[in-house]
Amino acid sequence: MFDVIIIGAGQAGLSMGYHLLKQTKNFLIIDQNKKIGDSWKNRYESLVLFTTREFSSLPGLQMKGDPQGLPTKNEVVEYLGLYARTFELPIQMETNVQTLEKQENTFIIKTNKETMHSKQVIIATGPFQLPSIPSISKNLSNNVYQVHSSEYKNSSQLLPGNALIVGGGNSGAQIAVELSSSREVHLSISKEISFLPLSFFRKSIFWWFKKLRILNATAESFIGKRIRGNGDPIFGNELKQLLRDQRIILHPRTIHCDQEIFQFEDQEKIEVKNVIWATGFTSNYEWINISQVLDKTGNPVHSRGITQIEGLYFLGLPWQHKRGSALLLGVGEDAEYIANKMNI
């Protein structure tokens, strides 16, 4: 029996492993992917982080390269692999958890390979689980190519003709910017976009966030609630400039589509050849067979990652404690907190 099993070998699981090494616990990190970093590797090719390398590192190991530069997704993949090797973390890949149960004081984890037993479990599967695609997508003609942003790689996937990106997050923004160099691009968003520069007076915007203690704002603080309520801004000015130049055409919320026609909230309609759904993700915890872990919407019930079930924890959730809880820059702090709270 293990002291701890960590489900997920992404940035959250690796950070947790780092802190558990200090406690000399008998633990194992399991992950369904083939290799460390696959969840990053499989994203679109042009993906670049909006946090500099200085703010893109896990505890104990700084990411290589210019601290003020922005790392690519491939750099993150290499960094996570290096992190696991540097600290010789015990990891078992290609292990898919099918069910998680608890009998008395023991957690039972049934996987595609074996059944494991542990005194404690940390669920570190991250926020990007199931692609969320609106039901109206079923109305589209087979002549329209559609793909979720998580499965988009590059423009060669698309059919000739224009492209509509539905969703106003940073992934949708980066994809829209990329495609605008080769075709007509439309962007549909549900609310007004706010922009923040990547740097200010030659310092990363996240350096300023740290200096002004914005990064320290907790989820339940006044500032934290304001930030959460406003949603994430778009980092960088590329999209802003392309919108000004009308090289990307902005539309309000998409309300309907039929065959090849999309209709927006202002009643305007356009014919579309390609659609990229940058509409986020939903959680999938159907494999957890323990009551009181999830609320009615299927989301974890927790206080800074600590659940009502003794020995069961979550890590890497958006705003688990602060803005950076689901990011490379902040997950380590939450991992340390949980490690200190665990009691075997």
From TrEMBL:
Presence of the UniProt keyword Ion transport in the record: no
Residues spanning the signal sequence? none
Q: Recite the UniProt keywords alphabetically.
A: Oxidoreductase
The cross-references to InterPro entries, in alphabetical order and at most eight, read: Auxin_biosynth/cation_transpt, FAD/NAD-bd_sf
- Give the GO molecular function terms: flavin adenine dinucleotide binding; monooxygenase activity
What is one Pfam family matched by this protein? Pyr_redox_3
Glycoprotein among keywords: no
Which protein is depicted?
A: Oxidoreductase
- Native organism: Metabacillus litoralis
